[in-house]
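Suppose a colleague, Dr. K., hands you the sequence of a protein chain of 237 amino acids and asks what its three-dimensional shape might be. Before reaching for any lab equipment, you can write down a predicted structure in C-alpha cell form. Begin with the sequence itself:
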Amino acid sequence: MEESYNKNSFLWDSTFYESLNKEQKGKYSNFDLVTFDYSKYVENHTLYDEVLPMFSSLIDAILYERYANYLKCEIEKIEISEIKNSFQHHSTIVYDNIEPGKLKEKPVIVGNEVNPFKSDFSEEQIEILTDCINDVKLFTTSVSPKITKNLFDCNLKGVLKSNNNRLLAYLMQSLNLKGFITDEWQSTIARNELVLGKTKDTPLTRTDLSTATDQINIKQPKGWEIIDKYIKQLKKG
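The predicted structure, expressed as C-alpha cells, is then:
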C-alpha cells in the first residue's frame, strides 16, 4: 500500500479495491466526489463507510503506516546520535556524514517482492501453459517455455502485448480459482508492467484488468473452452 497511496490512482491500483465484492466496487465507481463534505468527515470519520465500504479503515491503515515510518526514522536518528557521541568520546574520529538508513542496510529485492504471483509451476506445467497461450493467441507473438516462466516470475526482458484482454483475464482468473496463482494477480501484472494493452502501447493497469474480469464474469470470451482444456491438463502436470 505504501507504494500506492502516493499516487492519484492509488485506490484503483491497490489490492484494497481488488478485495471488494462486485456491489462494493460499484459503490466506489458510482460515488459522486462533489457530495464529499470534508468538514463532516473530520467530525465523523466513519460517516461515508456506508457509501464507500471500509473507507475509514483504509484511511486509518494509511495513517498508521505513515506514522510507523516516521517513528522508524526518528529511532534511526537517535541511534546515529548515540553512535556519534560514543565515537567522539573514545576517538578523535568525528562521523559527520552518517545519514539515517545507512547503518542498517538491507538487501534490495528486485520487484520488492519474492514470487509476486505466488506460483510454483513445474517444467511440465510451464510447457502446458505455453501451449495454451500460443493456441489461443493470447499475445501478438508466440511465446517459448522460457518466456512463460519469466512471465510468472515477473522477470521478462521486455513486455508482451495482449491480443485479447478478456482472454488474458480468463486465463489468469482460471489459474487463480484453481489455486495456481495469487488472488492479487491483477495488481501483480499492473505493478510489474508485464503486458501492454491490445489497443494501446501502455502497460495494462489494475483498472483495465478489473474491467476485463467483470466482462468475462458476464459472458465467457471466445476461446474459453480451449483454456479450460489446458487448465484440466495442468492439474495433472
